[in-house]
TrEMBL record:
Secretion signal span: none
Protein known as: Endocuticle structural glycoprotein SgAbd-2
Keyword hit for Membrane: no
GO terms of molecular function: structural constituent of chitin-based larval cuticle
Gene name of the record: LOC101898699
Example of a GO cellular component annotation carried by this entry: chitin-based extracellular matrix
Keywords: Cuticle
The UniProt record lists the keyword Phosphoprotein: no
Tree of life domain: Eukaryota
Length: 115
């Protein structure tokens, strides 16, 4: 016999109500979707079929931190932006200097014989 118990991370989630819901799909394939709940979850997206989409969402993390994210999804992939997202470490100075040197000292072009 197995017994599983769980509780919402945020007690407000248990009684959350939908405050706003918009879902519009147009004949040209464009769409708009919006959602807002009483526990502070907000989501919205606009797009054109499977071509591109832009959106944003926000909520409060289990630690009580406000999370806000915006994104674009298109031919260049999914591009999220938000203060909570990890960022890569800075490029080391010696790498930047190496790249600058390579740019200012290109390799000479060698013409191969076709004999």
């Amino acid at each position: 016999m197995a017994l599983g118990l769980s509780a919402p991370a945020n007690p407000a989630d248990e009684t959350a109500e939908t405050l706003k819901y918009v879902n519009v799909v147009n004949p040209d394939g464009s769409y708009t979707f919006e959602y807002e709940s009483s526990n502070g979850i907000n989501y919205g997206e606009n797009g054109i079929g499977a071509e591109s989409a832009t959106g944003k969402f926000s909520y409060t993390s289990p630690e009580g931190e406000p999370i806000q994210l915006t994104y674009t999804a298109d031919e260049n992939g999914y591009q999220p932006q938000g203060e909570h997202l990890p960022t890569p470490p800075p490029i080391p100075d010696y790498i930047l200097r190496s790249l600058e040197y390579i740019e200012t000292h290109p390799f000479p072009k060698v013409q191969l014989s076709t004999k």
